[in-house]
Amino acid sequence: MYAIVARFKIKDGTHDQVLGAFREHIAPALKGEHGFVRNSVAYDADRCTLHIFQEWETKEDADAHASGPEEAERLSHIAEYFNGEPEMAVCGVSSVLTPRG
User: Fold this and answer.
1) CA nearest 62: which of 6, 23, 4?
2) Is 87 among the domain residues?
3) Into how many domains does the chain fold?
4) pTM reported for the whole predicted model
5) Residue 99: inside a domain, yes or no?
6) CB neighbourhood size of 8 (10 A)
7) Sequence-distant (≥ 6) Cβ neighbours of residue 19 within 8 angstroms
8) Dist CA 38 CA 30 (whole Å)
9) Which residues share a beta bridge with 43?
10) Tell me, what CATH number does 37's domain have?
11) Would residue 56 count as lying in a domain?
12) pLDDT digits over 47-81, tens only?
């Protein structure tokens, strides 16, 4: 299992717009991508920062998503809300420390 871990600093007061654009333009497209498992978004209101954690079946799936031309097009829907460049990394998921249930 691999993850794309991303951090987006966003302009103050744009949280709802970013999440709306994410739900409309990005989340539906993820479901159709090969190897996609799940996507989680956390928001740090004190720092105006979104943290995104996407799980992928393989490193190749995660890399293909992160570097594909479709990703740049999807990010264009939320780029106006960015406060600086997003930070992203593809990381191996080594274990689940606290399973659900």
Assistant:
1) 4
2) yes
3) 1
4) 0.82
5) no
6) 24
7) 41, 43
8) 9
9) 50
10) 3.30.70.100
11) yes
12) 999 999 999 999 999 999 988 888 888 888 888 99
